[in-house]
Specification:
This protein is α+β, with helices and mostly antiparallel strands and about 425 residues long. The strands form six sheets. Strands 12, 15, 18, 20, 23 and 24 form a six-stranded antiparallel sheet that branches. It has a five-stranded parallel sheet with strand order 3-2-1-4-5, with helices on both faces. A four-stranded antiparallel sheet has the order 6-9-7-8, sandwiched between helices. The chain has four domains: about 90 residues, Rossmann fold, CATH 3.40.50; about 55 residues, ATP-grasp fold, A domain (Dna Ligase, domain 1), CATH 3.30.1490.20; about 120 residues, ATP-grasp fold, B domain (D-amino Acid Aminotransferase, Chain A, domain 1); about 100 residues, Phosphoribosylglycinamide synthetase, C-terminal domain (Glycinamide Ribonucleotide Synthetase, Chain A, domain 4, Alpha-Beta Complex). The protein is built from 14 helices and 24 strands. Helix 7 runs antiparallel to helix 8.
Length: about 425
Amino acid sequence: MRILVIGSGGREHALCWAIAASPLCDQLYCAPGNPGIAKEASCVPIAATDSDAILTFAKQEKIDFVIVGPEAPLVAGLVDKCEAVGIAAFGPSAAAAALEGSKGFTKDLCAKYGIPTARYARFADPTAAKAYLRAEGAPIVVKADGLAAGKGVTVAMTLSEAEAAIDEALIANRFGAAGAEVVIEEFLEGEEASFFVLSDGQHALPLASAQEHKRVFDGDKGPNTGGMGAYSPAPCVTPAIADEVMARIIRPTLDGMAQDGRPYKGVLYAGLMLTATGPQLIEYNVRFGDPECQVLLPRLKSDLLPALLASRDGVLKDFDLRWRDEAALGVVLAAQGYPDDPLRGSEIRGLEAAAASDPRVQIFHAGTTRVGEKLLADGGRVLNIVALGNTLAEARDRAYAVIDRIDWPEGFCRRDIGWRALQS
């Protein structure tokens, strides 16, 4: 098969790494890709959101299967456009991608089908939003309704923080159209976990569990980010909890979406809060998590490609995947200034030697560029260092040992990835 992966981050590097290993893959392209992906695939300088150029390239190169990594092209309908011209594609339609494209849509779906989630209200008017805030009190959560690249969520511990988040979205227009409406939610207490399933529109195949670290600094301090690290499996997602999530959250969502004429195909990522009264849905993402994808795929023993094809073709019913017993832990190396204004252009040295120092460690590029022989940081989250280990502690030690070999003074990482599971 001739395959095209869309995207340029750590998630897409992990996808390309897994797909390149499939005996079904004859030729692999990635648009636009990155210097790490270039070792697995032929990178094509086409933006992930340039659907016309992607379709032209896919027709020209006789692509058999397009795999869409990030959320923006999914919400914009790239899968629909591929399928309309006879090119098979993995991911949800634009109608189904509303699960991530609009937080308000998802909350309304939960209300309609009795899916456990935080109490909420939707507002486009800042005065009404603030009146609701004062009635509810803090702590409380304020979210931009649309896609805001992981930056549109404020977990406000005080009313003034919550009011500032409303002003940012509805008055200062910080998130553009994505923040034209906000969802205000009840603050949920518990442990967060990430739960992934593949869906073919009818059937759902659960994947391994994972847990990520959203806050930028050690001890879960500082602002939320796109994710500073992750590990799999997540001990807090017991088999009983996984069964409950499937029965009370995933299954009703997929049934409800099909009933509403928006059948969901692709990977569905449920962000969960494990509360004292059971798991509740925080939000849905309509693609593999980043950085969770980078710890899931090294644990996958089965070939990923047939599973993605089965999801697209509607034949997941009798499908199964096998997972390694080992744990995987991934640490994000970010550029100084992330998540607000990351420093770009600093040189990263010693990466090849660091990568070669441990065969059970994989380095995925997330925000890098090459200028001549130099590898430079070109984003907020720049590298993912992912280790396998017989235990989570062993995986953690391997990952940090490799990080300590990388010469990049302008980068930083959290030093406590996996602390929840290692503490218990």
